[in-house]
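ESCALATION

Customer reports they have been waiting on this structure for their group meeting. Please prioritize. Original submission:
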Amino acid sequence: MKLRIRFSVIPFAILLFLVAVDRRLIFLIPLALLSFFSYFLGAVLLVVTAFLLIYHKIGGIYGLGVMALVLLFVECAYLDREKAPLEHYAILLMAVLLALPTFMLMRSIAPLVPGFEATALAVLILLSLYAFSKMVTE
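Update from on-call: job pushed to the front of the queue and completed.
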């Protein structure tokens, strides 16, 4: 029997560190633990994270990083459960890493727009890039 690496533990550990920085997001930890077992709970985690970030007006690089890590964690957990090939993880990681240049682009072309709107737009582009890459690979 071949031992399979659980890649979802890596973004989960980084997410725990980021949540420890801002205690207002501490409510994400129990839901994140349950997301290891269910994709539905992972989708709920995505929605709850977005709601908490908006409610607490957490934006910028920190908000984008939290949202990107939650997406990476949820999808890695799904890929772990499905025993997906490593190429799928690479596509996921590439799509999530594109959030940072997208955010920088939004910040540079919209200097009069507050940072939160640029973050929200970058997150939407991140989600659409990932959805597109997922459709292409299936």
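Sent to customer with the following note: Residues 60-82 form the longest helix (23 residues).
Escalation resolved.
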